[in-house]
Amino acid sequence: MDIRTQKTFEALFALEDIREVFRQALPNTTSPEDEQAIREGVDKVRKILDDIQSGTGNAEVRKIAGTIDIRSREENYINIQPIQAAGRLTPEARKALLAYGDGYSTCDACRKPFRLDKISNPPIAPFHEELARFVNMDQARVVPGARRGFQAVASTLVSKGDSVVVSALAHYTEFLAVEEAGGVVKEIPLNEKNLVTPDAVAEKIEAVKQETGKLPVLVMIDHFDYQYANEHDVKGIAKVAHQYDIPFLYNGAYTVGVMPVDGKNIGADFVVGSGHKSMASPAPSGVLATTDEWAPKIFRTTQMVGDITKRKFGIKEVEMLGCTLMGSTLIGMMASFPTVRERVNHWDEEVKKSNYFLDGVLNIEGSKVLSEFPRKHTLSKVDTTKSFDTVAQRHKRKGFFLSDELSGKGIIGEFAGATRVWKLNTYGLSWEKIHYLVDTFQDIADKHELQVNRSQLL
Amino acid sequence: MDIRTQKTFEALFALEDIREVFRQALPNTTSPEDEQAIREGVDKVRKILDDIQSGTGNAEVRKIAGTIDIRSREENYINIQPIQAAGRLTPEARKALLAYGDGYSTCDACRKPFRLDKISNPPIAPFHEELARFVNMDQARVVPGARRGFQAVASTLVSKGDSVVVSALAHYTEFLAVEEAGGVVKEIPLNEKNLVTPDAVAEKIEAVKQETGKLPVLVMIDHFDYQYANEHDVKGIAKVAHQYDIPFLYNGAYTVGVMPVDGKNIGADFVVGSGHKSMASPAPSGVLATTDEWAPKIFRTTQMVGDITKRKFGIKEVEMLGCTLMGSTLIGMMASFPTVRERVNHWDEEVKKSNYFLDGVLNIEGSKVLSEFPRKHTLSKVDTTKSFDTVAQRHKRKGFFLSDELSGKGIIGEFAGATRVWKLNTYGLSWEKIHYLVDTFQDIADKHELQVNRSQLL
């Protein structure tokens, strides 16, 4: 780890140790020992600050709790990992984690009716309203990951043996949510462009009806799939689903938080997003939004009555299991939200950078982009079988030569050892980093005597 | 907020801003602007350190992301809130949150077979093994809260209309988990001591069989309940359940992480614990552990096959929905674990402090402890109707007089405004704080002319 990053962590940690002195002390009282600990802590931080400024010193803290390495991937590298890019925290989210880490920190001012989304301090209730507006739906709840949103919808709508129509590129969590509810997934085949079309959805619905004698109970489609991040015609698909009176779940794991999403305009009955994938939020987090029509079903409150005590917990929602995302996970999500809400307006620029980078990769002869091109997303699948893999074939480090070269230049997040088909994500990288990426990939190609067509000027 | 705590947060935040400079910069490169930002940041932290040391300065950062107050409840108060005490983070967990906040931070080294609990760096796989050993069960998974553990078990075992036997003091999340699975809860009545006895469980099982023609499919009991934190004879209850061949779920939300729990000795088929309630962990977190006998059912892997693509995701567990707790939530849990594993050995001392404090409360004439007494837990329900509530009756602030008095002395976490029946938790407080609590409660009693029997010397 770069020493200045290391020292920044050490300063943060030393401040946490000072903070712990206040935690252990009596209210507004410090003992001479406390004062000494604070003084020593402050002195320690001062020395570390000298090192941060001058880039001097040696690593003094290497592990957290004795076994966990300090993670500096985002500080010391350009990270092109396919699923991490848009989940990277904002500084505000990191500050929220600092301040709200304690388990039930959200619950200090929990009052009647005792439900997370009703708490007004911290402003959790208004956040829920803003979240619903953000995706233009009527109501929203936070959930521990998009998968828990799929689960809530599937558990409500799917009975044993029911069919759910998903894409041939559906994420595995959609499979699991349907399976957990006792249903069966039915995949929609892709067209020659690796897209799910509304026509194919209609055909699949008809085929399911034919085969099982029953219509599917849900159509669930990823706006951009996790494999190619191709854009599928969700609006057209929602329309088809509704023609059969089947509700439509919009999987926005790769859209909500990075690009504008208008659930009503799409015709979504449910919009699911992922906090840690696309909303600069801690994991596990996500959002499930729905319409006023569906809310009473998906967010139905408990009807169970204790047979002895006659207890009822009327305000608690069954599929949410009551409160969902407590503590720093939620507050981190909230702290990033102003940034996230603003950043979706710059999606075009992100896509432009994605295309610019891939143009640079395509200039390395033999390279291909397997995702639709030009890109409409920052996640992409590339095929470098006829470029970098030809080097790997003759290199003693095999495919790891590319990882070695990249990490030597401060680039990380490619699938280590993969030089044929692999994915990457440029979301949130500055133009400066994008240029650096292109230069580095092309320099590596040069070094290994691959042809780089720089004439196709970027 | 105390100015030194305030300044500690400001220093932490300023360091996060420095860290962000490294995040935005090219690898191992800083521009003159970056250097200036770092220099200014370092100078800022230096000034803040002066303020921390001398207790000077004014608050300069009041909100995170413009709307979220900085939370300093644990730094500036003694917090006796009933559910927060044992979820309070260790310093190591706070450092883990710092370093692993980014959404998918756990997934840097995810390799085949691509499942969270198989990742060895950070050491997630060994942590899972240690977790299982910690509660003396065969296998364990982390889950986003104890409720998600109940859900996984209920969803596996409970079919529509099935009965699940729970305590008349069962937590509402047990109700919801059963309801979500389509089952019905059947409560076991309490004896005169507010305890669930094995005999009562046997009677209830017989009654359910009589009434529904079928045995219950699950017995789910809280070792210490959330209302009184009375200890219920889980070992005896497990034995009864097994006599009917019914599996037993041990709800350890108030035990796993604070006292030793031996699942095998108890005879538990499932042990569920809460990270944010009792394991000094960020929310939402928890553990679900089971035996080798039950693991293939509860942790069954997906059998779903894509009808078009023939895709299978064989390693992914249906009830876990694949991976469960990513990012800082899990790493925070792991960072606290060495402390948690050690602290359960000091449970007797925690109980001693709990009893000492309550003796002090009982010395205030008219006060009662509604939980079993002497206490076997640090969570307790008290009744001050005939002590503090008599003051509230004639006070212009009503029940809030007590909150005012307590917070004026740096004590927080009682249910604001409640002076009749309320709960508190002394877990993790030092003897110094316990003495301070007793003195403060008795001083408040004195001030309002309640009789304090100090002759019963503590």
Automatic annotation (TrEMBL), chains A, B:
Modified residues (N6-(pyridoxal phosphate)lysine): 277
Enzyme class: transferase
Reactions this protein catalyses: O-phospho-L-seryl-tRNA(Cys) + hydrogen sulfide + H(+) = L-cysteinyl-tRNA(Cys) + phosphate
Ligand binding (pyridoxal 5'-phosphate): 146-147, 251, 274-276
Highest taxon, organism lineage: Archaea
EC number in record: 2.5.1.73
MF term (GO), any: Sep-tRNA:Cys-tRNA synthase activity
Name under which the protein is recorded: O-phospho-L-seryl-tRNA:Cys-tRNA synthase
Function summary: Converts O-phospho-L-seryl-tRNA(Cys) (Sep-tRNA(Cys)) to L-cysteinyl-tRNA(Cys) (Cys-tRNA(Cys)).
Quaternary data: Homodimer. Interacts with SepRS.
Cofactors, names only: pyridoxal 5'-phosphate
Transmembrane segments: none
Family annotation (InterPro entries): PyrdxlP-dep_Trfase (IPR015424), PyrdxlP-dep_Trfase_major (IPR015421), PyrdxlP-dep_Trfase_small (IPR015422), Sep_Cys-tRNA_synth_arc (IPR013375), SepSecS/SepCysS (IPR008829)
